[in-house]
Structure formats: C-alpha cells, structure tokens
Design goal:
The complex is a heterodimer of chains A (185) and B (109). Chain A has 185 residues and is an alpha+beta fold. Chain A is 42% helix and 24% strand. The C terminus of chain A is likely disordered. The chains are: A alpha+beta (185), B alpha+beta (109).
C-alpha cells in the first residue's frame, strides 16, 4: 500500500507531531485521503485484471460439472493501522457512539488487498478457481509506551482458500472448454 | 504433503483419516519495529514490517502442523484453518489446525 517514497512523508509528519495538532489533523487528513485514493485505484486495476482469470468463491466445492485435478492452499495477509485524523474522528465517535465511518474503509481496503495477495499466488500457479475462501480479522496488539491518546492497535486481515486448476473456461459461452479426452467412453 | 482448506482434494480420494493435527507459535514484536509502526500509524496505511512478521509466524505454525502430520504418516492435510489471537499486549499467537489424512489418486475412467 505504501511505496518507498512515502518514508519522506513520515519524516515530514514526524516534525509536525511536535507542531500544532490542528496542522497535524489537516496534514494527516490530506495524506490519508491521498493514500486511500491511490490504493483504491490500484485495487480496482488489479481486481479487474485478475478477475479475468480467476473465480473466487467461499463455497466448499467447485460448481457442478467442473472437474479439477489438484488443489493447493493459498493465503494473503496484510497488517494495517489508522492515521491520526481517523483516530481523532473515531475517538470523537466513542463519546456519542454510532458508526465509526472513518475506520470502515481501512478494513475494507485491507480485506481487498489480502484477497488480491492470495489471488496473486493462485495466479502464479496457473489456477483459475479459488474455493472455500475464508477471511479473518484479528487485532494483533497495541504498541507499547506512549500515553493513552497515542496508543493504537493494528489489525491483521488474512484471506485463505484452496486454489484449483480446472478445465473451466471463463470466456467460453459453454463454460467448459471442449476436451476430446472426455469423449473417450 | 498436500495442504487444502477444503474437505477433499480434487482428483484424490481419502483412504484413511488420522485425526487432528495442529501447530502454533507466539511471536512478540520487537521495539524497533514498534517504533517504525508508530510512525506509520500517523499517516496510516499498511505496516509492512508486521505483515512480514505475522506471515513468517503463520508459516512456522503451518510447518509445525505439517511436521506432526508427517510423523503420523499422513501425506495430506485437509480442512486447514487458521486462527490468530492477541495473547498479550505485544504478542500474537498464530494457530493452524487441520485433519491429517492419507490420500490416493482417484482411478480415472
């Protein structure tokens, strides 16, 4: 999600940490939005690309009539944190209660990223189905030290499933590609 | 060793079920990574160091599960599930479990 050039931003923000909280909020709002826009674009592009080759399902079995030769497990994971601005909004929500809308997109993006990483592994194996996909979210712990306001927790999202290679052709109107070997009997 | 999280392996038949196998590992984060993660949490986004750490830990739990299955004489593990728990403030447990089985290729035709 973050490219190498983003380290520069981290340094700038670090300097701002000791500056005004208002500047800090504004800066993290801008940067957070920029990172999110860029990530969503990247997700959409990769999803459209891999979607041409792989069908993902959380059903336990392949669709009726589709035969597979072998299956292997594939998984993808990502650990995400929230930015200062979103944590500020979330803390505000904690007083009145209700939907924490600022943090929702972070977890949804993490989930899509985890699924894409899983699919990249399936794609490398030449699989065209990933079945029995499971998604799991876990809080992996808060950081040590710091005062309560600066404490944060991180979330890990894991996606795993079984990648299978089948004779199914997503582009064929008949679904299954014609295979002369099927006519042997 | 075949590893799948479905009940059966396509193209193979389960000959014998040997029972539950499991593997776990608890990993603590180190302070250097914590500091870097702290910086990353100002701007948000992925915390790459932890993604790698947890992926490594999950891999180790899987390897332990595989080792147990091998000692039982299995050649595949079906129905694999993962689970993650935060057991202490700065440590996470990775847990992998599944059913060790002996499979054989299905006779075609």
């Amino acid at each position: 999600m973050l490219a190498k050039g983003d380290e520069a931003f981290t340094v700038v923000i670090l300097l701002l940490t000791y500056g005004s909280p208002v500047v800090m909020l504004f800066a993290t709002w801008l940067i957070g939005r920029w990172i999110q826009d860029r990530h969503v674009k990247s997700l959409e592009r990769r999803e459209a690309d891999v979607g041409k080759r792989i069908i993902v399902t959380n059903e336990k079995r392949l669709p009726e009539g589709v035969a597979a030769t072998q299956g292997t497990m594939v998984s993808g994971s990502v650990v995400v944190g929230t930015d200062y601005f979103r944590r500020f909004l979330a803390a505000w929500r904690n007083i009145f209660g209700g939907r924490v809308g600022s943090v929702e997109p972070i977890l949804m993006r993490a989930r899509r990223e985890a699924i894409l990483r899983m699919l990249a592994k399936a794609d490398a194996q030449g699989a065209n189905f990933v079945v029995n996909v499971r998604l799991e979210t876990a809080v992996v712990g808060t950081t040590q030290g710091g005062n309560n306001r600066n404490k944060f927790s991180m979330c890990e999202v894991l996606a795993y499933g079984t990648a299978v290679k089948t004779g199914y052709d997503h582009h064929s109107p008949y679904g299954v590609t014609y295979d002369a070997r099927n006519d042997r009997n | 060793m075949y590893l799948v999280n479905t009940e059966s392996i396509p193209g193979y038949r389960v000959r014998q079920s040997l029972g539950l196998v499991q593997g776990n590992t608890i990993r603590a984060k180190h302070i250097g990574r914590d500091i870097m993660a702290g910086f990353k949490n100002i701007v948000g986004g992925e915390i790459v160091g932890y993604t790698e750490l947890l992926a490594e830990a999950r891999n180790e739990a899987t390897q332990r599960m595989i080792a147990q299955a091998q000692s039982m004489g299995a050649n595949a593990i079906v129905n694999v599930r993962y689970s993650t728990a935060s057991v202490m403030q700065a440590a996470a447990e990775m847990f992998a479990y599944g059913t060790a089985v002996i499979v054989e290729p299905e006779n075609v035709g």
